[in-house]
Amino acid sequence: MRSFLDFEKPVADLEGQIQQLRRLADEDDTASVADEVETLEHKAREQLRALYAKLTPWQKTQVARHPDRPHASDYISALITDFTPLAGDRKFADDKAIITGFGRFRGDSIAILGQEKGSDTQSRLDHNFGMARPEGYRKAVRIMALADRFALPVLSFVDTAGAYPGIGAEERGQAEAIARSTEACLALKVPSVAVIIGEGGSGGAIAIATANRVLMLEHAIYSVISPEGAASILWRDPVRAQDAATAMKITASDLVTLKIIDAVIPEPLGGAHRDPETAFTAASDAIAEAFDGLSGLTGEALRTARRDKFLAIGRNLA
């Protein structure tokens, strides 16, 4: 059964009617419902198109968090061949919130970093809902060092509500680990591309998203804090998360205008969760284009351009 968001209720009602008609046809071979089903399917598509043409920032936040939205592991399975995962930070433990390894993207060797939320109760617990601990970021640093050593481009799939804020994580140096991972991104002398596929939350995201090219799916979000967290701080009222989402400019269309991201990857009608294969194809093409634009640059040029790109954020916007 498909999960519907609150604002998708009109579409849910129409699709419910379609399912009822199909069940009727299955139970009664003489029932002819094809024309009615086709009419309802057309109405559902048009209703979906109308809804998604005017999504508010808060509604986009809901889409970015949809339980059926493809995660990093799905993109890796779809886009990367010969993927070999690597585990552990060689200091404390392995953090499953961040998947790392090597594989091939369109035939070329590449290093992969991905934040994985999990797709069911057990996997979400195993991956800690995509919220990495210090050992996750230290593992990312280890993989980036290997990528630099062997001259392999780095591709990151970003999808986290933020770094894990637990006591153990703080005791093991969460802030320092995030800073070191961000530093490792900036120091790379190989091309790097980051794709925000769902939520890009705070330092937990920037730790692997400080790339030469930052791409973002159409209905993803990217922010320094969650809308709920911002509302709690600004107005002491998490119920005002919708106001915070609007004020914070967290959508792809806002962020490309502000020059915080480089390009928006279009999603299929109704979001990536409705048609993952189309989303994978669009992401693959955008990633290939981004890497093509970086080909031929020296290591020092890549590092300098990346540094200048992030230093320029927030300047000359008037």
Question: What are the SSEs and their pairings?
Answer:
Layout (H helix, E strand, L loop, with lengths): L8 H19 L6 H19 L4 H8 L7 H8 E7 L11 E8 L2 E8 L5 H6 L7 H16 L4 E7 L6 H5 L2 H14 L4 E10 H8 L3 E5 L3 E3 L3 H8 L6 H8 L3 H6 L5 E3 L10 H19 L4 H13 L7
Parallel strand pairs: 3-4, 4-5, 5-6, 5-7, 6-8
Antiparallel strand pairs: 1-2, 2-3
Helix pairs in contact: 1-2, 6-8, 8-9, 10-11
Question: What number of domains?
Answer: 2
The Rg value, from CA coordinates, equals 21 Å
Q: What fraction strand?
A: 15-25%
CATH topology of the largest domain: 2-enoyl-CoA Hydratase, Chain A, domain 1
List the total number of helices: 14
Mean pLDDT: 92
**CATH homologous superfamily name of the largest domain?**
2-enoyl-CoA Hydratase, Chain A, domain 1
Structural class of the secondary structure composition?
alpha/beta
Unreliably modeled segments: none
What is the general shape?
Answer: globular
